Amino acid sequence: MADTLESSLEDPLRSFVRRSVLELGSGTGAVGLMAATLGADVVVTDLEELQDLLKMNINMNKHLVTGSVQAKGGRNRRLSFSTRLHTDGRLHIL
């Protein structure tokens, strides 16, 4: 995803707008938040103990987001790769 972010600096709107992004092991969610700021629909994921941090960072930066971003994850939890990611059923960036 870092390569896509780097290439998006030349034309950020075209690179991420309406793209579906799943970030695994998001930590603070900074990379996913940047993608959402550039217009992507993002799901950031990490362990249960990081969910509060992810949600706090999403809330603090929601005014910058032009796509969408949501936090999911936790122990023993399955993620659903479906149209709930605001896509045509395809995941664009993982």
From TrEMBL:
GO cellular component, as recorded: protein-containing complex
UniProt record, GO biological process: methylation
Keyword field contains Methyltransferase: yes
One term of GO molecular function: methyltransferase activity
InterPro entries reported for this sequence: Methyltransf_16 (IPR019410), SAM-dependent_MTases_sf (IPR029063)
Entry keywords, A to Z: Methyltransferase, S-adenosyl-L-methionine, Transferase
Protein name in UniProt: Valosin containing protein lysine methyltransferase
Provenance organism: Pan troglodytes (Chimpanzee)
Lineage, uppermost ranks: Eukaryota, Metazoa, Chordata, Craniata, Vertebrata
